[in-house]
Amino acid sequence: MAIRMPRIIQARKILKRSLSNGSTTPASMDIPKGYFAIYVGEQEKKRFVVSVSLLSEPTFQELLHQAEQEFGCNHPTGGLAIPCSEDVFTDLASRLGAF
């Protein structure tokens, strides 16, 4: 469990940074409590709102690790970006009950 915690903590820091920029845009206001927005896609990014319970799933943590390798802490969309195809992500997220 200790190995996975840094990834969760890092994801929380990225989310806090992207949500604490001082602006309250309609996009940030439509996220219910207990959920967060991520951007998925290899070229064109699509926004998804998923449950925070997804952060504890090992398969999602692997996607976070891939995002860290590709983007570091500088996510071009201003939010958490996941570098995989939309189809792969929706399949994974639906199996994990993230929607």
Please state the overall shape, judged from the principal axes of the Cα atoms.
Answer: globular
Major sheet strand order: 2-1-3
Helix content: 40-55%
Major β-sheet, in short? 3 strands, mixed
Gyration radius from CA atoms, angstroms? 13 Å
Distance between the termini: 24 Å
Q: How many extended strands?
A: 3
Average pLDDT across residues? 75
Structural class based on helices, strands and sheet pairing: alpha+beta
Element pattern in H and E: HHEEHEH
Percent of residues in β-strands: 15-25%
Query: What's the tally of helices?
Result: 4
Poorly predicted residue ranges: 19-24
Describe the structure.
- This protein has a three-stranded mixed sheet.
- It has helices at 5-19, 26-29, 58-71, 86-96, and strands spanning 35-40, 46-51, 80-82.
- 44% of the residues lie in helices and 15% in strands.
- A hairpin with a 5-residue loop joins β1 and β2 (46-51).
- The chain is an alpha+beta fold.
- It is built from four helices and three strands.
- Mean pLDDT is 75; it is low at 19-24.
Blueprint (SSEs and pairs):
Elements: H1 5-19, H2 26-29, E1 35-40, E2 46-51, H3 58-71, E3 80-82, H4 86-96
Parallel strand pairs: 1-3
Antiparallel strand pairs: 1-2
